[in-house]
Design goal:
53% of the residues lie in helices and 0% in strands. By secondary structure, the chain is mainly α.
């Protein structure tokens, strides 16, 4: 059973995004929900920044700052990050009129809110391979819709 405490304001989303960017977000706060909150923050509030280019570097530096090494088996994961940004962008596209926190809450209550959501498209061995961690790889179960 997953635990998700809904966000109550856009300020919470901004704090996560800003905390990631400035490497001040406590490591314990870097959850599945926080990953999506940061993606939505970047996509909605900083459209001048290419999220697919910027977020990987932000996550890598954040990981290093918080003591998580970026290796072949831990830390930054390219395929997961790119898939999550693409899914967040699609989710946000028809909800841009809503408060960001409400959109993030809705996303977290959707199938995307389940940490294993990517296993619909990728087999576990393929998704957690060194190749997928280092570069985008196409799914092997079903085409990625985002």
């Amino acid at each position: 059973m997953r635990t998700f405490i809904p966000f109550t304001s856009d300020d919470e989303i901004v704090a996560i995004g800003h905390g990631l960017a400035t490497r001040t977000l406590p490591k314990s706060s870097w959850t599945h929900a926080a990953h999506f909150a940061a993606a939505l923050w970047l996509l909605a509030l900083h459209p001048e920044i290419d999220a697919l280019r910027a977020m990987p570097g932000m996550i890598r530096v954040y990981n290093e700052t918080t003591g998580t090494p970026n290796t072949d088996s831990s830390g930054y994961h390219e395929t997961i990050t790119h898939a999550s940004i693409r899914a967040a962008r699609a989710f946000l596209s028809d909800r841009s009129h809503r408060p960001l926190f409400a959109t993030c809450n809705e996303l977290m209550l959707s199938p995307l809110g389940k940490p294993e959501w990517l296993l619909t498209y990728w087999s576990r061995p393929r998704l957690f391979s060194v190749e997928a961690r280092k570069a985008w790889i196409e799914p092997d179960i079903e085409p990625f819709p985002f």
